Amino acid sequence: MTATIRPRRRLHAALTAALALALAGCSADKYPNTIFERTTEFNREVLSIFHSLFFWSALVFVLVEVALVWVIWRYRQREGAPAPKHVHGNTTLEIAWTLIPAVILIVIAVPTVRAIFRTQAKAVPGALQVQVIGHQWWWEFKYPQYGITTANELYLPIGRTVNFELRTADVLHSFWIPRLGGKRDLIANHTNYLWFTPDSVDVNAFNGSCNEYCGASHANMRFRAFTVTPAQFEEWTIHQKSPAVFGAAPAAPATTAPVTAATTQGAAQATAQGKPQATTAATTPATAPATTPAGAPVTAASYTGFTADKLPAYTVPTMPIPDGISFTPGLTGDAARGQQVYSRSACIGCHTIAGNPMSQGIIGPNLTHFGSRLTIGAGLYSNDEQHLALWIKNARVMKPGVIMPTLGKGEFDPVLGTTLKSGLSDQEIADIVAYLHALK
Ligand code: CUA
Question: What is the percentage of the chain residues whose pLDDT exceeds 70?
Fold first, then answer.
């Protein structure tokens, strides 16, 4: 017996080693969206099925090819050789080649069905609940246990199971963070679930995307997922739950603060726009420097989220600015003025900013802590002054098909096919940028 088992074990080991070697080429450094990682139980489950399937398919392939080549060689045409014997109607052979595939199918089916039941089971009680709502073309994330609504940037505590409740506000979408797990569809009138535990990750950032065609900007429906320490996550939730720091309703006579806030922001953005940091994951918990606007009542310890300097290069947007759109260079915005312009513009019809009673819209992303987000337009551009100004000026040029209207005076709206006779001036847009960036 051992004589037959040993070669099989050796073959198994050799194939696994070859596979491991091949997959090493798919490492996260070179391929930041690789699925060959063991970061969650979901990924591990899928990967183990993949490995076992790969082993069995490789084995079948090798055996069949060897048999084929042997038959071709053995029964090749030779002078004087008799014609090979025909074996049609050989019952033993026919039973064998019916049974073998059946056994192979069972070998594949058992772990697959088991994995389906495991991953489709209800998440453990006490899991972090995250409602994911797909919109054309952005992601709304709600944390009902914490009363938080945010967009396009997902924070997940390391080691805690997260249960995603997947829904859509319009058409079909599909949620996927390749290195953590997924993908699962967001379907109209039906809630899908997906859960996993990011238990084998460091503090890191991952790319997420929509994977079901959903219209013109399907490819521009991206998001980022951040795995943070449980302590950072708690601080993040406390920060997110609070109203926007700048210009919150009963704000004291803060007329000088906004300008300083805007300038600080500008400087921070300038550094952020420099060379992206090394791709290595930040292994130490990022003790975030509290980038509070001047005099803002945020404690020094509070973690407001990932900072641009901690972003791995593969999560930094590289989308070029489309042709035909520009912004007056050198304009300095005023956050207090920006708040006034914002609060009397179309913006408030679609966006909510907790702390700004005028801004209660729910069509677009919640902007309460917009200043601490790293990207805009659903992960499409960096959240810096230039990109944000262009976005406000003409979002429909920056991202095809978006619902957000063209707002810049004199701009051509590609959806309506008209040029705006009235609208926001570049100075007004710069002011709104300063205001939004002050919303840490
Ligand atoms: Cu949403 Cu594709």
Answer: 81
